[in-house]
Structures are given as C-alpha cells and as structure tokens.
Amino acid sequence: MDESTSAQPDEHPEHKEGGRYTAKGKEFVRDTHYISTRITTDGEDGYPVEAGRYRLVAARACPWANRSIIVRRLLGLEDAISLGLPGPTHDARSWTFDLDPDGKDPVLGIHRLQEAYFKRDPDYPRGITVPAVVDVPTGAVVTNDFPQITLDLATEWTAHHREGAPQLYPEHLRDEIDEVAHRVFTEINNGVYRCGFAGSQEAYDKAYDRLFTALDWLEERLAGQRYLVGDTITEADVRVFTTLVRFDPVYHGHFKCNRNKLSEMPVLWAYARDLFQTPGFGDTIDFVQIKQHYYVVHTDINPTQIVPQGPDLSGWLTEHGREGLGGRPFGDGNPPGPVRPREKLTPGHNPLVPG
C-alpha cells in the first residue's frame, strides 16, 4: 500500500502541531510506509530468528500494536521475544516508557522509542510507530511493518512456538485470509480513522457509509460461522478484534462512528465477546489505557482531554452462544497458559481482572 498523509494517525506522532490529526477540507489517508526489514529463519535481511535477541515494543492502547501482543501470547513466544510496554499517551516526538521505573525501558535502557529508530537511521523521517521490533544488542529498530510482524511470528518463529499453538496463518487458507484481511483493513481497521480524522463533512459522510457497509458485511458473514476464515482462530480474527473491542469505548463517540454501538449488532457483539473470553485476546485489553490514549492525545477532536467513564464493561463477560456454530478456537492445539506476572493487567482496567 502506497499511502501518505499530512494528518498523522495516533500511532504516527510526527505531526508538526501537537495533537492535530485532521487536515481541514481533506479526507484522512494513512501513511503506510514502514521499515520492511524482516526477521526470518534464513536471516535473509540480516536478522535471523533467534530467541532472546529481539524486543517487541507495543503499546496496549494502540490497535495495531495490540495485534502483535495477542499473536505473541497465542503462540507462546513470551520466552523468545520480550515485551516492552510504552504508556498510553505520547507527545509529538515519540512514544515513551512512562510506565517503567524512571521512565526507562528496563531492557533497552531508553526513555523514548524514538531513540531506537534513530539508532537504525539518525535521520529517520517518518512516524515513531508501534509495534516495533528492536534488536537488543544494537538497540536499533528492525521493523515496524505491523501486518508483516504478526505473519512472521506465525510462520518464521515456529521453532519457538509453544506446544499446542494454533495455526494462525495456515497455508491452505492464506488466500482467503489475505482477501478478508484486506477488506477488514481498508474498510474497518482504517475505516474508523477515516471517520474520526475526516477534515470535511463530505469526507466524513463517505467514510461513515463505507465503514457501516463493511460492518454489515461482517455481521452477515459471521451469522453462520464462528470465525472469519475456516473453523479455527486465524490472523483474520486477530485483525478485526482489536477494532471491535475499541468500538464502543472509543470509536462510537470519539470518532463519530455512531450509527449504532457494537453491542447493538447481535452477531458482531457475540463474536467479539467469544474472542474476548478466549485466552490470549481479552487478557491483553486495557480499556483504561485505550480510552486515555484516544481522548488525551487527539486534542483537535477532544480539546478538553476529558476521558469518559463509560461504557459499562460487564457485558464482555456475558454468554455469547457462539459455540453452537461449531469450530474449535485452537484447532488441534490448546489455549495459552496464564499471563506472565509482569504482563498482567491492572484490576479495574479489564473485566477479566478482579477489582
């Protein structure tokens, strides 16, 4: 995808005016120029798969980064790839490690993710984005190509997958997964941003219609099947989940995606709850950080930076009834084990965690 924009999205904080993400009179177009270096078994790009060498930097607040956190957990790669967690907000320069003692990542020893980008390229001209995979020995970013990162975790890191890990990108389903994932990205993952960052009424109206046309398509597709592609969880489900889980807390109000709430779309609401209650999905979601990020960072949309208290999250734990459609979440495998102590969510931030 060859897109660029003068109004940067939330995970691209290189905008010139702090907190401004809309361009008056223009529709939102995402910058999709990423560092495309890959970490592979053959090390063709100079970075071979090697347990303990790399650190995944991924903010829980960001939907694109949340994907990589989910996939890493589903595949059991916690011992092979460490996880750095920036805080939920950033300034115009960079994501920062303000959740860590002294505001410094304990492995990389940096305060700002920007430092790892500049280790790779001192004149790096684009957004300081998450997720980013950092080469720990050099401290330099290897890649921030978020769609490829999760595919490579599923296909190149198989020697380090846990026993019973799911097949998230099985060869016989890749064409269908790619087709579905493309529509999910253009119309839904990015569609909510086209609504929220629209610079004109015309751009917003067009984005709104595209988004809900796609959500209606999903509602119809999932009415008769438990998962998006095949009868097990795949990459396609991971990609749509991170948008659906943010829909009512953020996109419905903050981004004006308000034809209806997710909780008012019976099939999608049940599908989202099914995934949320599946180990590896809901246990990565920090609703407090998600709301802080969007409502605090986007000051041109929410100048007061007031973070809403709602919505009520208890519904995420209600019965979904999707088991009746068949399917097995992990195929012939099994769920991941307990969340690692350092990566556990804070009580009050997620209904799965007792308060």
Automatic annotation (TrEMBL):
Residue span of region Disordered: 1-23, 317-355
Pfam families to which the protein is assigned, alphabetical: GST_C_2, GST_N_2
Domain GST C-terminal: 170-297
Compositional bias per record (Basic and acidic residues), positions renumbered to this chain: 9-23
Membrane-spanning parts: none
InterPro entries named in the record: Glutathione-S-Trfase_C-like, Glutathione-S-Trfase_C_sf, Glutathione_S-Trfase, Glutathione_S-Trfase_N, GST_Omega-like_C, GST_Omega/GSH
Lineage: superkingdom: Bacteria
Protein name per UniProt: Glutathione S-transferase C-terminal domain-containing protein
Organism: Georgenia halophila
